[in-house]
């Protein structure tokens, strides 16, 4: 990637075999071009998924609001790749920020997450705060403008450049109505909570519901791993079936992990924010459960799920089970048969399959 006559090497993390997927977008370049003539000392960046802004702005004091463990790894990888040895100041979307002069946002797919970003910025804003938001026009909705107008008096949209545009926000509103940034979800006798931006806002998605309706633990399955655990509903149901079970929840998204900590309070649970299972002990779990993701922002990509499957095989005990729910059209069984000796479909309906894999070696 070239910007202002300087070339940067940027690679996606995790690696992909899809050559059409880049580690940057024209929306991010348009944002950089818009601020390139500024005398910037400090900048806050949001949704810098692969680190293009961290690399180009490496000589500034950059605060990076991260949402994914894989995002942190991508930023680190690309800084090292360009021999930019800087220490990144990381914050989560739940952290308080110091005074925000300029904020850059690559608008995420989730309107809720976008609003959470704006709320975090607004709390640390002053009269001269400016927020520059980049987006690809094919993914944009006027709903993003309506959300921005709740927080800023001035909301303007740029002309298009290579199918990208900007929203520029100025003049933060002086007062806002108090608002909770947590959704509540009713499930049986439980009220679940999850932060804005976590998958399936306001309800349990139908794939997970189908999985839970057909989930039956065996008496000797006492150590259970929930992969891509989201708000923790599957792990919660596991502990309801057997209070002696110890559950470990792994998710790439930090707001999902923080939500599951609320929902499994008082349970025998451990929480890991990571995009892989590499930190878990080999041959250590009796059962692994999962509703694995295949949507990543606006991309459909099963490569991450397939990497997780390899990690599951590594950390399952011999004769341990892997239960997952998946959209039928994804044909995961073909891939799972390469990893597990026994793969069978336990239940299916018109849209979903529940697949059981047994580790035999």
What does this protein structure show overall?
By secondary structure, the chain is an alpha/beta fold. The chain is built from ten helices and 20 strands. The strands form five sheets. A seven-stranded mixed β-sheet has the order 5-4-3-6-7-9-8, with helices on both faces. Strands 14-13-12-15-18-20-19 form a seven-stranded mixed β-sheet. A two-stranded antiparallel sheet has the order 1-2. β16 (about 295) and β17 (about 300) form a beta hairpin. α4 packs parallel to α5 (about 140-150). The radius of gyration is 22 Å and the shape is globular. The model has no long low-confidence stretch (mean pLDDT about 95).
Structure, briefly:
By secondary structure, the protein is α/β, with parallel strands linked by helices. The chain has ten helices and 20 strands.
